[in-house]
Design a protein that fits this description.
It is a single chain. The protein has one domain. The chain contains 4 helices and no strands. Helix 1 runs antiparallel to helix 2 and helix 1 packs antiparallel against helix 4. The relative contact order is 0.19.
Length: 94
């Protein structure tokens, strides 16, 4: 379960960055491509985000996280590059 959470954390971070790239760089230059990519990128990011949050709840007990650590992991899902930090700091030795 923890290994799955590591993969989801990395993929969620990547999908977040791809979504930002689509919004910031592709939208101003090519509106048709932006609209074409928006749904699949947004949907995959949404599914990964929900999986990240649920898996964090499920592995909380096995990794002996307190509520403060769990809250930090949840907040990290809202910030760009923060899920990579969580994977490195909390899941590196697991």
């Amino acid at each position: 379960m923890v290994k799955l959470f590591k993969y989801v954390a990395i993929l969620e971070g990547i999908s977040y960055l791809v979504l930002f790239t689509n919004m910031l760089y592709i939208k101003p230059s090519n509106l048709v491509l932006y609209k074409t990519l928006l749904f699949p990128i947004g949907m995959s990011h949404g599914v990964l985000f929900i999986g990240y949050v649920i898996l964090a709840i499920l592995i909380k007990k096995s990794l002996n996280w307190n509520f403060k650590t769990l809250l930090f992991v949840w907040i990290a899902s809202l910030l760009p590059f923060a899920t990579f930090f969580v994977e490195r700091k909390y899941l590196k030795n697991v």
